[in-house]
Design goal:
Elements: E1 2-9, H1 14-25, E2 29-36, H2 40-47, E3 51-54, H3 66-75, E4 80-84, H4 86-98, E5 103-108, E6 115-116, E7 119-120, H5 123-133, E8 138-141, H6 144-153, E9 160-162, H7 176-186, E10 193-198, H8 207-215, E11 220-225, H9 231-240, E12 247-249, H10 257-262, E13 265-268, H11 277-284, E14 289-291, H12 295-298, E15 307-309, H13 316-330, H14 340-344, H15 347-362, H16 369-372
Helix pairs in contact: 1-15, 3-4, 4-5, 8-13
Length: about 375
Amino acid sequence: MRVLHVITGLAAGGAEHQLRLLLRRLPFDCEVVTLSNPGAVATTIRADGTTVHELSMSSNHDLSAVGPLRRLMRDGEFDIVHTHLYRACVFGRIAARLAKIPHVVATEHSLGDGLIEGRRTSAGVRALYVATERLGDSTIAVSGAVASRLRAWGVPPERISVIPNAIDAREFRHDPDVRRACRARLGIAPDALVVGGVGRMVPEKRFERLILAVRDVPDATLLLVGDGPFRDVLKDFAAEQGIGDRVVFTGAVEHTRDVLCAMDVFASPSDQETFGLAVLEALACGLPVLYAVCPPLDEWAEPVPGARRLSGHPGALPRTLRAELASAQERGRTRLPVPEVVAHFDVARLAESVGELYEKVSARTPASAHSRGSSK
């Protein structure tokens, strides 16, 4: 079976790393096409031996990529097209229909409450998404929360498969030597108490909450990992709060293991998370975790050791940070045991579930076969 994965971009990001992990485990002949921004993840995927094609689609209104994408699909004689992220899902489905690809699967990674990939969802965005969703066979929701939003948008329940995101926990094992080296590289003292956050620098991540909280924890350093349009705003805000010298911005990183090893407490203040991969990665690194929203933990049947859901009270976050940092000091900075929930969301489970979905849709008569004709 030949599968073409279509993704909006391949810079550092949750959906991009999910694709990287998936490709390593899928037992199929896969290739990838990125519609824009072939960044660090594209390099890693190529190094793993998977072909990555590049197109130059400038925006969600740029139709010029549809023709080249259609030709790539047709000439590659793919059996399945699998799309990831909004732009790729919309235009990838259209191109797949034009190329007469037998089956199309999509993964919806980032559908929040009134947001998709951090942007407000207009009526036009929603209508286009739902219209093109009908051109495919099945849409994967990365959590129950995303599945509920897809149903609310009008996607029929029978077309939705919930297949959670996953991590390779081995990639995040704590290493004291890595911790020391990363701190030295970032100019963080070996004995500093470090609170960390990971994510794209956009307003929805609510990193300003961490800045305000760390302002009230005088001995703490804040390590913010990621890049985005809000980065300079956050830098200015930290300076305004008088703690610019206690906030370290790393920018985008190729892999988060090093920076997680450098932290003592991980915090995710965002209340707009469709999954919360960074939370699972922090747990896999043995960190105590504070989070506002994380569907895998929220949907887990039992409390997760080492994870604490944040209260909405404004003064709760500084108090909780102080308590967690004090506990870390008492433990001598030793790491917590990795909780069971991390193993449940292992990448092998993800690849198996996606492979089963491919086999299931391939057994069907191609959608709209009467109007498409032969698949080759």
